[in-house]
Amino acid sequence: MSEGIPWIGAYSRTHAGGVPGMRGHISLTAARGIGAEEFLMALCADLAQLEDGLPYKDWRTLSADGGTVSAHANWAMYGVHGEWVYVLEDWGMATWYTSFRKVEGVAPYPDEEVLCLTMNSHCPPSLLVHAPGDGDDRRAEFGETTGSGSALDEALQAAGAVLPPRPDALDETAVARYEAESEALPRAVFAAVGSYTGLVIDQGAVEAGDLPLAVLPGVT
Fold first, then answer.
1. Is the pLDDT of residue 70 over 90?
2. What's the rounded Cα separation, in Å, for the pair 152 and 113?
3. pLDDT value of residue 63
4. What is the pLDDT of residue 199?
């Protein structure tokens, strides 16, 4: 199975295919400068649930426990690699993205950094949001840079994750090339973020649901 994180983008337009974990439509949120439990609790996860250490593949155990988990909860899995904690969700968006402007304590403090790739499956386009902890957030649609000239923008350029303007429809060859590049774009974006963060997330563990479960309340 693949490691790194480009594989996440490669499956971004496919469904899970019956795996007990996740495969398609995965949104990624990664943070550094903050511990895993602290970050997940900022997303309103329950500490007792995290301490249970239940693997993601056993989420149905909680969903059938007499209603103690909200029907609007989002089922996530998480892990730590190097200095980054990461959260994976395949419900269409990323909880951090839906809550960082609405819930106090979710936006990063000055010594923290958050990078979020939210698929926005129900409300395209897919977005990259980078909050380096300076009180600002820089965002870009897939295919663009954040415009800040940061090391992340450089990684996006180097990975081929930045597309030129759509060509004139009369130029069929250029349009075909543009469409092919657009199809490969999610993989390139995840590759760029992997290069920037150094994240390695094992595909086999994610598909098997072996990573620990985090139940995150839905924020609308």
1. no
2. 12
3. 58
4. 97
pLDDT of residue 14: 80
Q: Backbone phi, then psi, for 63, in 5-degree steps?
A: -70, -15
Which residue do the tokens 């155990």 mark? Answer: 61
Helix axes 172-183, 185-197, angle to 10 degrees: 50
Predicted confidence (pLDDT) at residue 78 exceeds the cutoff of 90: yes
Q: What is the rounded distance in angstroms from the CA atom of residue 168 to the CA atom of residue 174?
A: 8
Non-local (6+) Cβ contacts of 128 within 8 A are 115, 116, 117, 139, 140, 141, 142, 146, 156, 189, 193
DSSP, res 91: S
Centroid of chain to Cα 67: 28
C-beta of residue 133 within 8 angstroms of C-beta of residue 110: yes
